[in-house]
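Question: Send over one sample?
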Amino acid sequence: MESELHEPPVPPELHELLRSLRVWDPAVTELPPFDPDAAPADPLPLFARWFAEAVAAGQTEPHTMSLATADAQGLPDVRIVMLHGADADGWSFATHADSRKGGHLAARPYAALVFYWPVLGRQVRVRGPVTAAPSAEGQADLHARSTGALAAALTGRQSRPLGSLEELARASEAAWARAGREPDAPVPTWTLYRLRPDEVEFFQGDAHRRHVRLSYHRAHQGWTTRLLWP
């Protein structure tokens, strides 16, 4: 007879800690007003302005974002990645084509992004189809970054099972050495992806929980906007 498996109980300290936490502490957070009637017709200029304001407000790593994808069976996955750019072609990020997220995007080329800038109580959510940029653009993007970024890309094998930390250390040291010798070393699997948004939502937190949510939706020509209940 098989024994039943029981999950260990959650320590009560965790629940107590959760109940003690608050968001948007006035000592460290500014909740600026947001007038959706004054928003631009296109979401990109508003994103660029909010991004610059997050940087000016001292937000830590404002260029990091959650990237949500789904596998071939439709099961979701999410991780933190870095924004590489945002322009008329879309919001861009990069990874190995043979990584887990690269495989997801090959099977289901649609994704969602979320930026969270708690110093201003702001979120930006972006959804849309994803395409891979030409290989030359991906390589140029990689080689414009740091030596460490190139070394990480050269290490490769992202998301695959790892035998030991020693194995990782050896591969990483070799990759760092090559990146130093060959700053233009090619990484064939490295791919620049662009998400061309169908929808962009701007969320501004409010101390009275009357949060302002402005949603842009791509139309045949230009964009339409609507407010959403918080």
The first strand starts at residue 64 and ends at 70. The CA atoms of residues 49 and 55 lie 10 Å apart. The mean pLDDT is 94.
